[in-house]
Amino acid sequence: MKNFQNNIINEFKKCIMKKIIFLCFCALLASCASDEDLQDINTNEKELANMINDYELVLKGYSLDELKKEKDELTPTTQEETVAEPWLIKAIQDSIAQIQFSDNIRTRTEAGAYTRAVNMEGVFKYETCGGYREFVYFMDCEDGGDTHSTGNIGATRVDGNGNVEFHFCVIPTGYATGGVLAFYLPYLYTENMHVVKRHHDNEDHNNKNHIIDNAGLASLGPNYFDKNTGFFWKFEWGASGKLPFKFGVIGTAPLPGSHNILWIDDENGKNANQAIRWTGPNSSKGFDLPAEKDFYGITPGRNTRYEIIQI
Fold this sequence. Notes:
The chain is an alpha+beta fold. Helices cover 24% and strands 25% of the residues.
């Protein structure tokens, strides 16, 4: 019986991967389509994201009964924190790459989108974004987990169910020093620049991640916002511009002093979190950031700690 179940699961995996490949091919063809076909492209992308999420849940070994359980965000979780095997992390990342491929081949923009001629990045909103637009994202964290914040993290907030609503002001490059969210692919050969990809393995059960306001962006760059979250943080020093409002960046405040901390409880079961750093011309594949060690305000591991500096 066990061999029969394994065979069924393996066949299901193959079917999902075939579907993922097919949807990516559809997206490739759609990139040459007319504007009237944009709705079909969006439908394919949503279906692709759902298929990839199904693929991850199958790989993690969830039963149908577990997936059908009613969502409970208020009862403290008793699920043990476990780490996914390396092969599982690689399989999940390979499938996520299909989403990024699908998004990157799109050549058209929505009405009112920011021009592509300007590279845009996100800084944490505090009181206002001035005349700039706002990117708002809801992250579904571990149900019954310990997601919390201390200090003043601005407009970004942890809700009553332990989830995070991120608020970013979307600004042109050159105005912020420290860790900002890159809505474009940074040029890694620039001196004094680091790029960190933080993959958040978000809540597996009935995940509610969603973009509330995309700020009219034509592209989200290498970031992804599906059932899991991929933030690409760019660290660069020596900004030349100045903004007329307060904002926040990822960084490490001096000791002693107050610290603004956002602590995110990521998925407990077979956690597939990942943190990769790129810097300079000799790091095309990047380097894994060590768990539980701070890197300019990011502390990765089974969960995630961000420190936010108000500018």
